[in-house]
Design a protein that fits this description.
alpha+beta, Rossmann fold, 4-stranded antiparallel sheet, 15 helices, 28 strands
Length: 648
């Protein structure tokens, strides 16, 4: 409240008492399964292209890619993917020597994830563009056909290019950090023995021009101490002998005094300048007196007047090139380094680690081990393990959904691919040991065109990916309280069914909680069942359970503000108002039964729900009840003949 000190009008902003609740998302799915490549932690994917970039394409040992594609094809907007791998899967890796002489260690480049896909990666290592003396560039390419290596990989467009990378761990462009953050294909790690450090060095360009005459000035910066002016003696200006000039430069620099107390004085006192001859051409070579990783360096730049650097070919603008103490740690230059080629020779250090998908048997535990990676993900509500259609897998999936702290996930299961009769589907259902309302069972598998193009005939695919996309589509158009079934629940991308059932067969499966996918004239292939697996009639239908999940999550997220508020009538009334307003909005959208809100739901929070003992324990109890909409599963039309009418 404002302090009232003068006569006049005071305006304050106060809360209206209502805190809006957002409707929780109900259509984000999570898929667990084998993938060609990609991270093993739960990762959000928003489209099929992103899935391909992160996880690769279709594989022969699973249906994850097929199901994610059909999820988006049937109306899904975003999902989480959890990749699992076999226990003996391996990551492809190769170690490239550094540029030190003699060689001392190197840098290991690894595929970003396990699998044989890493064997198809090729690296090209070059000098960096901005600072070729100290930085390097890595281009990553991949062969399209794992069995065919292109003759010239430089003609293949790189998938990733990382330029101007440093080997200095303190640099912002440190190669290990940059690849860890930005690359989806490779990672890097220096070997522990990669400890080579050289004296900071500056090599001038070839063919210096002498004599210098009156051009006797230059500026030099040793070990990042700062540029200092150097003036050579007048006598050396007449010399045409490079060695005499080198001696003069060395003497003049050694006479300088360091500008920073943190600079090692040895950088100046042990500084050298010599003449190097390569293939008959000479150049000046300037070296710091230190071999410090982070600071050993030599930089040369021209002076404003009487400049000698142009004639001496020193400085970046005159063909000179500086290499700092860490420059020799850069991986050796190589046109082609195949990560998965065990026969590679220098500059590669053998042996190469070959990537492998593994051959160990995959069990239900292999896939359920991926469930805990979703424990901290709170914005998904559907779970599927496509193609792993065993009763044990279904039991594990539904148990996980029911045992999550908020019970906020619904499992979409399927019968086995070989179950192509109603009797086999019924037998599958009766073998389930976990029969709660947090899952649904769909039968049969569906047929779709082979996305790999290897089969001219449609291939069998698990229905869970299709159904998850259908859930998302129905939720968006009608609401989670609408059963994801009926003639509007058509499945896109379906070319046929593993089993075509009639009414009698369907009638035998429906009471068991098996949701049948059928074909109807004029409607195509549709989901024609909306039951959970539970025997509890209160939670028999999928939309009832999913509506309850939506309410639970929405209210949980929406009333966090109430924690630590005074536990009395003002708080209770705010909770009643906030939740009641939310429930009224849903009622008007058709989420509940009844002609009036009072018939559709109630919200109770008062002295009856919260006793003094509860208050003493810091507990406030809110009771929310709703009258769920249940689908008209059986539409009965009674027809009678009207008799006894007199003829007109």
């Amino acid at each position: 409240m404002a302090t009232l000190t003068y006569p006049g009008v005071y305006i304050e902003e106060i809360s209206g008492g209502t805190r809006p609740l957002d409707v929780a998302s109900t259509s984000t799915a999570a898929f667990v399964g084998f993938a060609e490549m990609g991270p093993e932690e739960a990762t959000r994917i928003t489209n099929w292209t992103e899935f391909q970039r992160r996880y690769g394409t279709y594989t022969d040992d699973g249906y994850l890619a097929h199901s994610v594609f059909q999820y988006f094809n049937n109306g899904g907007r975003q999902c989480y993917v959890v990749r699992v791998t076999r226990t003996d899967a391996a990551t492809a890796a190769v170690t490239v020597n550094n540029r030190a002489t003699p060689v001392a260690g190197g840098m290991t480049f690894s595929a970003r994830s396990k699998g044989s896909w890493g064997n198809t990666l090729f690296l090209q290592i070059e000098d960096g563009t901005l600072d070729p003396g100290n930085e390097f560039k890595v281009s990553v390419r991949r062969q399209a056909d794992p069995a065919v290596v292109p003759a010239n990989f430089k003609d293949t467009a790189p998938l990733e290019v990382f330029d101007n990378l440093s080997v200095d761990p303190t640099a912002p462009n440190y190669a290990v950090s940059v690849l860890a953050q930005d690359s989806t294909l490779i990672s890097a790690q220096p070997l522990s023995g990669n400890l080579s450090v050289q004296r900071g060095i500056h090599r001038g360009g070839f063919a210096p021009t002498l004599p210098l005459n009156g051009n006797l000035g230059l500026q030099i910066n040793l070990d990042a101490d700062g540029f200092q002016a150097v003036t050579l003696p007048a006598a050396v200006g007449a010399s045409t002998v490079p060695a005499d000039v080198a001696t003069a430069v060395q003497t003049a620099v050694r006479a300088l005094t360091r500008k920073k107390t943190s600079t090692d004085a040895t950088a100046f006192t042990a500084f050298t300048c010599a003449v190097e001859t390569v293939a008959g051409q000479s150049r000046f070579v300037l070296q710091s007196g230190t071999t410090t990783l982070a600071t050993s360096s030599v930089r040369v730049q021209p002076t404003a007047t009487a400049d000698a650097t142009g004639l001496l070919k020193l400085g970046a603008g005159n063909g000179g090139r500086s290499e700092d103490g860490a420059a020799v740690r850069r991986p050796a230059k190589a046109d082609v380094v195949q990560i998965g080629d065990a026969a590679l020779t220098a500059p590669v250090i053998a042996p190469v680690t070959l990537g492998s998908d593994g051959v160990a048997a995959a069990t239900e535990t292999t896939f359920s081990s991926g469930f805990p990676r979703l424990d901290n993900v709170t914005d998904f509500s559907l779970l599927a393990v496509p193609g792993e259609a065993t009763t044990s897998m279904l039991d594990l999936g539904m148990a996980y959904c029911a045992n999550r702290p908020l019970q906020d996930v619904f499992y979409i299961g399927e019968t086995g691919s070989h179950d192509d009769t109603a009797d086999e589907a019924a037998a599958f259902r009766t073998k389930l040991t976990v029969a709660n309302s947090y899952g649904a069972l769909y039968f049969p598998w569906v047929k779709a065109l082979d996305p790999t193009g290897r089969s001219r005939e449609p291939v069998l695919l698990p229905p869970s990916g299709f159904v998850a996309g259908l859930y998302a589509r129905i939720d968006a158009s009608r609401g989670v309280w609408k059963a994801p079934a009926g003639t509007e629940a058509s499945l896109n991308g379906v070319a046929g069914l593993a089993a075509e059932l009639g009414d009698v067969q369907h009638g035998n499966l429906n009471p068991l909680g098996v949701d049948v996918i059928r074909r109807f004239a004029g409607a195509g292939v549709v989901v024609f069942g909306a039951r959970t697996i539970t025997s509890d009639p209160a939670w028999r239908y999928v939309p009832v359970r999913r509506t309850a999940i939506m309410l639970r999550v929405s209210i949980y997220n929406g009333i966090q503000w109430a924690v630590f508020e005074p536990n009395d009538e003002p708080l209770w009334s705010q909770l009643r108002l906030t939740i009641g307003s939310f429930m009224t909005t849903l009622f008007r959208q058709g989420a509940f039964q009844g002609a009036t809100p009072a018939e559709g739901f109630f919200v109770k929070c008062d002295g009856e729900t919260t006793t003094q003992t509860d208050i003493d324990n810091g507990v406030v109890n809110v009771l929310v009840g709703f009258a769920p909409l249940k689908p008209a599963e059986f539409v009965v039309v009674k027809i009678s003949q009207k008799a006894g009418l007199a003829s007109g």
